[in-house]
Specification:
Dimeric_a/b-barrel; transcription regulation; 5 helices; Alpha-Beta Plaits; Lrp/AsnC family transcriptional regulator; Tscrpt_reg_AsnC/Lrp_C; WH_DNA-bd_sf; single chain; four-stranded antiparallel beta sheet; alpha+beta; elongated
């Protein structure tokens, strides 16, 4: 993204698209005081620069039957290149893992994991996570209640 300078109009476009990814180009142009062609070109430039990474539908996990939500802290026994590369590749393949962060502190990685229920989570642990080479310790923090969840990046 180097060299791409966000303008105030870009920020307005991004804010509107984050609220409603299905907004028409015409409505987006009207709300940003741009012509439809200029707005379309700006959105395309934001996509090509990787600032707009993708368009998605936000799903209510509980209503979709995914009731078990946890933050999982993982510590590796060694930080050999092979263990780290393997861990990252395997975690990226798992649909249960919504987010994976390499972190500082006592744990090396924080995972946000979503499963239908506790049995499915135990299966994820037993048949996947515990079997990964280099995994020394796994600590599960079960999410009791979601207080705040945002996907939009704020521009002030």
């Amino acid at each position: 993204m180097t060299g791409f300078e966000l303008t105030d109009q870009d920020r307005r476009i991004l804010a509107l698209l984050q609220r409603d990814g299905r907004i028409s180009n015409q409505d987006l142009a009207e709300r940003t005081a741009m012509s439809t062609s200029a707005c379309w070109r700006r959105v395309k430039a934001l996509e090509e620069a990787g600032i707009i990474a993708r368009y998605v539908a936000l799903v209510d996990a509980r209503r979709a039957g995914m009731a078990f939500h946890a933050i999982v802290l993982v510590k590796l026994s060694r930080h050999s290149r092979d263990h780290v590369v393997n861990f990252i590749a395997e975690v990226q393949r798992r649909e249960e893992v919504l987010d994976c962060f390499a972190t500082t502190g006592e744990s090396d990685y924080h995972l946000r994991v979503l499963c239908p229920d506790l049995d499915a989570y135990n299966d994820f642990l037993d048949n996947f996570l515990f079997g990964l080479p280099g995994v020394a310790n796994v600590h599960t923090n079960m999410v009791l209640k979601q207080i705040k969840h945002e996907t939009a990046v704020s521009f002030g």
